[in-house]
Fold each of these.
Amino acid sequence: MTTLKARLKDDLTTAMKARDELRSSTLRLTLTAVAKEEVAGKTARELSDDEVLKVIAKESKKRREAAEAFEQGGRAESAARELAEGEILDAYLPKQLSDDELAAIVASAVEEARAAGAEGPRAMGAVMKIVNPKVAGLADGGRVAAAVKKLLVG
């Protein structure tokens, strides 16, 4: 079984041979981010696939945010490139939860938190603690928080 990092490297080689500039630069930057993460702590280490996924998700989110900034700055071409890079990265991430799937998970977590006695503003933290492990990597943190807030405030 190949690791996710090995898959990224193989895909980079393929993209370079195909002279796919967008894909190769995107994968190169992502592999650099992975390498940077590997030497970030006190000791260098090999990242697990889950950790590599987190790096890819972070890179993908950066692309979305940059695209938004370019869009607001009237630089449509740069925004389009950032979005295209984001789509390349999204292909490596698990399929995101739909709004309905996310709402169902949040609703059951709210029930669970209320059963444990969490009420009012304090319930937000309790619900997030229950929801986050269930949706890790499947939904953006901002989306999750918004769904929880919506249900709690009603």
Note: The longest helix spans residues 49-72.
Amino acid sequence: MKAEVFLPDDYSPAEDEPFMNDRQLEYFRRKLNTWKNELMVGTKDTLEGLQDSTRNIPDVADRASEETDRALELRTRDRQRKLVAKIDAALRRIEEGEYGYCEETGEPISLKRLDARPIATMSLEAQERHERREKVHRDD
């Protein structure tokens, strides 16, 4: 078991420290866990809201509006469920020592990119190449 890493509240990963050192890994672990917990609370609130809102609405327009809202909420939660899976995958990469490195090139992903999108698996350049290839194949 690893010793707990001290991380000041105002800590932010810096380019001048060793890449993916213990402090940076702990910073991203906490960031990912906080994000995941927020999503899980939202999911719980949605489920409770859906259970509470199962009522008979006599007006057809009101019922249609509520069903549309419910479908939108469920679609949003489905996207968040997929996001939780990506967060779990990023947490696994941290544990396995692979976090922060591009899965395509093996090069470090920039700290700014990871801070903005902590589930990133590719460097910005590799992601752009991937999206260009995807666009070319999609246009066929």
Note: Residues 58 and 64 are 11 Å apart (CA to CA).
